[in-house]
Amino acid sequence: MRGMDFENTLKTPVLVLGATSLIGGHLLARLKSEGLDPVAISRRPPSNDACWLDGDLKDPDLADRLPAAATVFSLSPIWLLPSALPALKARGLSRLIAFSSTSRFTKTDSPDAGERAVAADLARAEAAVEAWCAAHDVAWTILRPTLIYDEGRDGNVSRIARLARRFHVMPLSGAGEGLRQPVHAEDLAAGALAAAHAPATRNRAYDLVGGETVTYRVMVDRIFEGLGQRPRSLPMPTWLFALVMRLARPFYPGATTAMGTRMGQDLTFDSSAAARDFGWAPRAFHPRF
């Protein structure tokens, strides 16, 4: 990343899975800026770009649809990856950089059964990827971001921004004192590429946090500021917030009482290993919409 040079160990050709994700466009741009010619695969590829292929990691004939690729960046949900690894290996895979999520840790004990299932799926998929790669001589790196944002596109920070625009106030469960480390999708793209270049990252997993740790309430205030509005958060008792979430569910499908519980929890991780091994140096949290 910024200010560091790496031995160029990225093997070509390069394939990007799930390239329509938040990170995908940023990663493709960076690969092209290095003079590489990546191929992207997605279930919804743009129709006007020759470097994109229409494909699904669940396709039984996946190996026949894939191009040759030595390095693979996987931006798709990691639980889709284990079943696709044999097809990728058949097309030349020797280096894998895959995204997972710190949700594998933060949602393990969630009161919401769906969130606990996501945490379990992430953990199982990571273990399966590591075991398969070790058995088939594929160097792997797993990257676990915290709260990903990309102004106007993500389902976390931008969802709060949409609520702030509409209602000019953001309810909080309690004081919103839980700590957060929002990380920008563009920084994650840069980090993935730096990890692919750095020999020290082989067969390791990294937690990737944003450049600043803030409380949930400060995060919300920064979102208001990014909209050009005066911050207006509304702390309320946890029982009242839970009631509001239940009433809002028909209009706000993502609303869960677990959201309120987490507002008071510290969801923080340490990226010092990533800083040491591939120069991880993300931006502070000042979104601009």
TrEMBL record:
Superkingdom of the source species: Bacteria
NAD(P)-binding domain span: 18-157
Transmembrane segments: none
Name listed for the protein in its UniProt record: Nucleoside-diphosphate-sugar epimerase
